[in-house]
Specification:
Order of helices and strands: HHHEEHHHHHHHHHHHHEHHE
Shape: globular
Distance between the termini: 35 Å
Strand content: under 5%
Strand order of the largest sheet: 1-2
Structural class: mainly alpha
Bound molecules: iron/sulfur cluster
Radius of gyration: 21 Å
Number of domains: 2
Largest sheet: 2 strands, parallel
Number of helices: 17
């Protein structure tokens, strides 16, 4: 095999793409016609597909709180994955992360976000997480005291799963595919003009969902992992747990030519300030362990460290 091709295949990025692709196929149990498993993972996925093999832990959390059930399974999933693997599922397994990486190939020239703006924007995801949790927890408390009637009415479509109702992942992986299938069936059964009038009467909620999804995907074309960095509530929870993870990276001070290089920092899609972090071991809240920095370093100075 040509040595250049061989070198490319051995890069972590190539292995990661293969794992992302296989996970994406595996997640979609419908393809294999496998029944649903009670496997909850902290990745941005959907509950909308009937034969899901993997459940999105944050959506499960909202459903459990809506039904006033203590979400021990979800908490266990976040804690176990967080401590053992840190935020690496975001980099290697998450289907929405995979889609963003693919979209990132469309636009080679990326938007320049200043470190200051980046630092302020990373808190948006904590705000989204806080709002969703506040609604779900207060609703759960109201349900336990049987005082939820008025609250449920006021929340309307947001009562059951306040975040997932508008989640771009739900729209991309469940709402749109279902609509396409329904549309195909309708076209074969009823006159085309009736189908078109059906499209014109789609609910306002759908247009909002579509607007958010398209906005997020376009943003991700310009900003690598834009959704993960700034808006994802899974990312917010995993960022907190990343600090307590066994997983980390180590930068060899002898090999690193820090002053005249910085290639690793430029390669990082999550804007991690690699060179300002402790060299012995760093597990930055934002790091998704994509290992792009490891691949990029000309001196092989960065390595995985476990524990
Ligand atoms: S790419 Fe490697 S050598 Fe360059 S600054 Fe980063 S760790 Fe140091
Ligand atoms: S620090 Fe390295 S492994 Fe972590 S997100 Fe940045 S490039 Fe990926």
């Amino acid at each position: 095999m040509n040595s250049k091709i061989k070198q490319k295949l051995l890069k972590f990025s190539t292995i990661r793409r293969v794992i992302q692709f296989l996970s994406f196929i595996f997640f979609s149990a419908a393809i294999f016609n496998v029944g649903a498993l009670p496997l909850l993972l902290p990745v941005f996925w959907t509950w909308g597909m009937e034969t899901n093999i993997v459940g999105d832990a944050f959506t499960a959390l909202q459903f459990m709180l809506y039904n006033a059930v203590f979400p021990w399974l979800v908490i266990a999933s976040f804690l176990i994955v967080g401590v053992i693997l840190g935020k690496s599922l975001c980099g290697w397994v998450c289907p929405f992360g995979f889609i963003q990486d693919l979209i990132g190939f469309i636009k080679r020239k990326k938007m320049d976000i200043s470190p200051r703006t980046h630092q302020s924007m990373i808190y948006i995801k904590y705000a989204i997480l806080g709002i969703a949790l506040f609604i779900s927890v207060t609703f759960s408390a109201a349900k336990l005291t049987e005082a939820h009637g008025g609250y449920e009415k006021a929340l309307g479509i947001f009562a059951e799963a306040p975040f997932t109702t508008l989640s771009p992942s739900e729209t991309l992986f469940a709402t749109l595919p279902k609509m396409i299938v329904d549309f195909r069936n309708a076209v074969s059964e009823i006159p085309f003009l009736d189908v078109l009038s059906g499209v014109a009467t789609l609910s306002p909620l759908f247009w909002v969902q579509l607007f958010i999804m398209v906005g997020v995907l376009v943003f991700s074309a310009y900003v690598p992992r834009g959704w993960c960095k700034y808006f994802c509530p899974h990312g917010a929870i995993m960022a907190i747990l990343n600090k307590f993870s066994f997983l980390g990276l180590r930068r060899d001070l002898v090999k690193c030519t820090k002053a005249e290089c910085r290639i690793c920092v430029q390669a990082c899609p999550m804007n991690v300030r690699i060179l300002d972090l402790p060299w012995e071991k760093f597990s930055d809240p934002e790091c998704i362990y994509c290992l792009k920095c490891v691949d990029a370093c000309p001196n092989k100075a960065i390595k995985l460290k476990y524990p």
